[in-house]
Amino acid sequence: MENIEQIYTGCLAQGAYYIESEGEVAIIDPLREVKPYIKRAEEDKARIKYIFETHFHADFVSGHVTLSKETGAPIIFGPNANPSFDATIAEDGQEFSLGKLTIKVLHTPGHTMESTTYLLKDETGKDYAIFSGDTLFLGDVGRPDLAQKAADMTQEELAGILFESLRNKIMPLADDIIVYPAHGAGSACGKNMMKETVDTLGNQKKMNYALRADMTKEEFIKEVTEGLLPPPQYFPLNVKMNKEGYEDIDTVLKRGTQSLGPAAFEAAANETGAVVLDVRHQEEFAKGHVPRSIFIGLSGSFAPWVGALIADVEQPILLVAPEGKEEETITRLSRVGFDGTLGYLEGGLEAWKKAGKEIDTVDSISADVFKQRLDNKIPVFDVRKETEYAAEHVEDAILTPLDFLNDHLAEFPEKETFYVHCAGGYRSIIAASILKSRGIHNLVDVAGGFKAIKEVGIPVTDFVCPTTLKK
Known about the structure:
The protein is an alpha/beta fold. It has 17 helices and 24 strands.
């Protein structure tokens, strides 16, 4: 169907949807910056008629509030939603006409209690596609632990409700129906998502462990709740913003794009307690950066790492960004609710150095040099995820996952030199910046990470044994 466009944002592993028929448009789960949707509708000589939300998102701030304000289109949630702003709370089975198409509400609680799947019917009334939000992913289903406090239920109770939703509302649908999920591989909203972003329901019934026809509810609850890592700390704060509203993105951009000379930048950092966030490439950061600044580069999974590591969406932020990337950075921060950017360093690090300000560096070595030094028994810290470490790791390396680095600070040597590596070099520089901001400077980064380590023939193992460093 030519009327549907999936607008996929790789950094967030998030899918928003634009559906048009006969000059009428529905947007499902829009991102924070809404101008692209408005512009697209104008190009189609169409009007945005509905804004559908599948649930109160935890991993990003949706653009529903601003989009409704700018277009007059109503925001539609499924049953059980109770937002602080005006919205249509649809009933299970309620239908909305969109040109020649129809969108039917299927209440599918379990990931959250308001979670809703939207079933799109074509002009003949035939079921064509589902927009499944976080209820059904490709290869997985939404984790049932995020709404425990709000719903006053255990994750096992929510998983049981999700089982019923899938069996009663999703699985009876025809195999040729297209599944458009809210997220793909890389999102923290599930465990085993496929890298593909569109599939048929029939293929999911074959491929997705959670849709096995012979699965009991007890088996489903066990498998869905098994191996869930703690959610990032910013998730509840994003839910709150999606439920209660937020500032317009234009206001956030205007405040954040203030250029500050080195003296004003330093004064702002001292007076406001702002985090200095450096978003350049990791190699540039290693060569020189503002002391105690945190590195999270735009080239990686920027917004989720900001959310996981800075955590407090109200934290003031000052930026060191590549020239011309300031607005993009502020926009991407706002997608996960970080609206407190106060300005950026005009002229970047070069201006900082010319002003005679102090700079810091990260000691970084190649995998070849690392191989030569390994015989010295210097401790090695691996900041990848547990699953990556379990698959393969440097012998005797100590696992300190970046997501939870602050929980491992006591394990790093106080004086002895140690090495830090990740998979490819991005996360280890993030880790190095956090450690240095905490006063831990006796570290050496292994450039190129585990990929480079394997290429030079350093011995690795898949033997997993809990390893902690005794000081």
